[in-house]
Amino acid sequence: MPYTVISGFMSGIGVILIILQIAPFLGQDSPKGGVIGTVQNLPTLIGNINPLETFLAILTVAILFLYPAKLKKFLPPQLLALIIGTLIAIFFMGGSEIRRIGEISVGLPSLQVPTFSPSQLQSIDALLTSLVADSLTRTEHNSNKELIGQGLGNLVSGLFGGIAGAGATMGTVVNIQAGGRTAVSGLTRALALLVVVLGLSQFLTVIPSAVLAGIAFKVGMDIVDWGFLKRAHKISPKAAIIMYGVIGLTVFVDLIVAVGVGVFVANILTIERLSNHRADKVKAVTYDDEEIELNVEEKQLLEQADGRVLLFYLSGPMIFGVAKAISREHNLINDYQALVLDLSEVPILGVTSSLALENAIEEAVDQGRQVFLVGVSGQVEKRLRKLGVMAKIPNINIFEDRTEALERAVNYVEKYGNMADTDTIASQVVG
After folding, report:
1. Is-contact 173 153, C-beta < 8 A?
2. Is residue 178 in some structural domain?
3. Integer Cα distance of 268 and 127 in angstroms
4. pLDDT tens digit sequence for 237-248
5. Are residues 303 and 403 in the same domain?
């Protein structure tokens, strides 16, 4: 996946987290409508700000930003901010109306048979979260391992009435910021949640929502890819447009849509760039050309042909975007009597490019010109034979060596080049 897309949805997720914390950050209930609802109600949220809760949120963010890095391995800053904010709320704001987590349901769920419906078939973003983790830890995840673990977890969850879930970006980032790097950190987080569910929930009901909003706000700030945001426009305007487009779609439409559109556009631009690069490897010449490495004998043969032999040289993978260049180069030169098609440096030949070559060969044959094929082997030969292109060229006109093919082409134009009846020429040469 292009990094412009990864950076875009990372920053988009960060922006979503930041926007969704505005209401609890200001001491308000989150409005309906998610991100869009929050943005629409922003004036109202600011006008009804709760100073005490906003103070707790600002204090939490300040602790997270100012916490010494060397102490993180002993005590995560998020845990310290949570404890300090909660203690202040208990001892100094006990009589004030501030929003808290409230009662948490406890106990283990009962086993039940899951039911299915088409509406439940949705995409999960576990691997997208894995990419975020890779970017933050400079590691590389195992996609198959992630999906197998995700599937097993959801399978067990479904047996107890739980809904299918995916890798949580917010929880993953908090885990990484707290120093987690291996699967043990994820297991520890799960065990901590289990302990809370089994008996410690009453101790968490007093945690202020503003403190959690401050922690989530800092997580959102950390997820945003500030490093690439500052440099994207310097690297490539197209890359910047893709990244900002993915951010916009992630925030205001849908994460999966954003990634799909971003990957599609990035791949189209990549194909265009590769096609332009590969188009430079398509050359049609009748005389010596510095961009094609010709030996002394080949140069002499082209000079001897005096423009009557067209050397059509291709090199590298011929993807479908190169078909246009093949047609363009071939049509630039019309006044020739023999076509030498050199494919010795082509490892892969796409269907579209194959059809473009077929058109060039058919046009030459229809006009009574001889076609000589050089260096066809492997996948290229297999593709041309399946398309029936090889059948259009006599076996005696297929060579492994370009010099030999040029020599045969020059002999042909010198012997038959001045004959008016092109059908007679073709029949005599084939015969």
Report:
1. no
2. yes
3. 23
4. 888 999 999 999
5. yes
pLDDT one-digit tens code per residue, 64-121: 999 998 888 788 898 899 999 999 998 888 667 788 887 766 666 778 777 777 776 7
| Cα–Cα distance, 118 to 93 (Å, whole number) | 49
Q: Distance of CA 286 to CAs 299, 306, 334, 402, Å? A: 10, 8, 11, 14
Residues 81, 187 within the same domain:
yes
Q: Look up residue 93 and give its two tokens.
A: 């704001």
Nearest alpha-carbon partner for 99 in 54, 32, 161: 54
Task: Kindly state whether residue 108 falls inside one of the protein's structural domains.
Answer: no
Q: Domain range for residue 324?
A: 280-430
Is position 112 within any domain?
no
Separation between Cα atoms, residue 42 and residue 212, nearest integer Å: 20
Domain total of the chain: 2
pLDDT (tens digit per residue) in 22-38: 999 999 988 988 899 99
C-alpha–C-alpha distance, residues 24 and 211, integer Å: 9
pLDDT-derived band at 411, boundaries 50, 70, 90:
very high
* 142-153 as b/e: b if 16+ CB within 10 A: eeeebeeebeeb
Structure tokens at 295: 């030996």
- Total-model pTM: 0.71
Q: Flag whether 169 is in a domain.
A: yes
